[in-house]
Amino acid sequence: IACAVLSEDDVIIYNPSFCNDCKAALSIAENLGAEIIIENNKIIIRPDKNKISNTINCGESGLSVRMFSPIATLFQQNFTIKGTGSLKKRPINEIKAALTQFGIKCQTNNGFIPISVSGKLSGGNAEIDGSLSSQILTGLLIALPKAKKDSIIKVNSLKSKPYIDLTLSILSDFGIKIKNNDYKEFHIKGNQQFKAINYTVEGDWSGAAFLLVAGLIAGEMKVTGLNINSVQADKKIIDAIHFANGTITVNTDTVITRKSKLKAFKFDATDCPDLFPPLVVMAAYCNGTSEIIGVKRLTHKESNRAEVLQKEFKKIGINIKIINNRMFIEGGKITGGTVESHNDHRIAMAAATAALASEKEIIINNAECINKSYPNFYKDLLDN
Fold first, then answer.
1. Mean pLDDT of the chain
2. 3-state secondary structure labels for all residues of 207-255
3. Is residue 166 within 8 Å of 232, Cβ to Cβ?
4. Pick the catalytic residue: 21, 234, 274, 344?
5. Is residue 380 among the annotated active site residues?
6. I need a labelling partner for 165 at 20 to 30 A (CA). Which of 8, 130, 181, 184 fits?
7. What's the CA gap between 228 and 84, in Å, rounded?
């Protein structure tokens, strides 16, 4: 959607998602002057058709606020970027730290949204911290090819490298060339043109991970539409399932899991932190204590995901210990009970998946928060 807004002509996106985060991105595209036409299983985005707004609402999307902040500055406007719900609690200092190096003026609400942005992005050099999130880097990589001058971004301690691979792959599809020097420096030529293309969105490994774990604990699950050659970070769920001795069959665009006698596993989720919730469910049904590395990546999600997983899974019979950057999950019996989603879509999905083989029912409060990323999750989970 972001690339389409910057394109020369109409872009057609096939197989789109209509989750809340994607609706927020479409709304931002309209704020940046694009016309949005929705037809069946496709979205047509026509750039430069409407008046540009000076207010952008990102909903609860952390990616949108970080990604569209640099992009908005290409339009030489004074923008106010705001959001709702959990996004109000997520720090955005890295946006200001990055944009001010390019001469953009930013004002935040003590490090939180709303953020006021003024000035036009013209290129240049910057050094950013990639240890907490790669999302501001994604925004800069999309925006800077349209700037007048060439740019160099130096990145310290980049985590989530697969997400940057995905960004670069999509940019390449739109005709944009960026030189990646070992993820430490990115060289970006200015005055590039985004080609107008037709783009088919591949299946989402983040959502699929829960379904694949469901098959391991409750019976066969067949998930189609996944790209086995994807650079998505959460494709690593396949490796984790192998580590846990799970039964999994991987075909060209279909992955099947079957009920398995699972063993405790060790897995490094530093580069794929969104896998923590489904991995905790899988670990809960393993024989022994499993270890997941990368807890520090969970602090500023929709909730403090490490603390929430520990708290809520204890309510349903599973003990979780957190020591520094490591999470230890003791496999056992899920007894059932009532849990809070903390308005975190992945916590709600984890609880629902865990319930499939629970001794008693699990009640999830504020269960509708799955609409953020996967509105049909409960239906897909139970229909299979």
1. 95
2. HHHHHHHHHHHHCCEEEECCCCCCCCHHHHHHHHHHHCCCEEEECCCEE
3. yes
4. 274
5. no
6. 8
7. 35
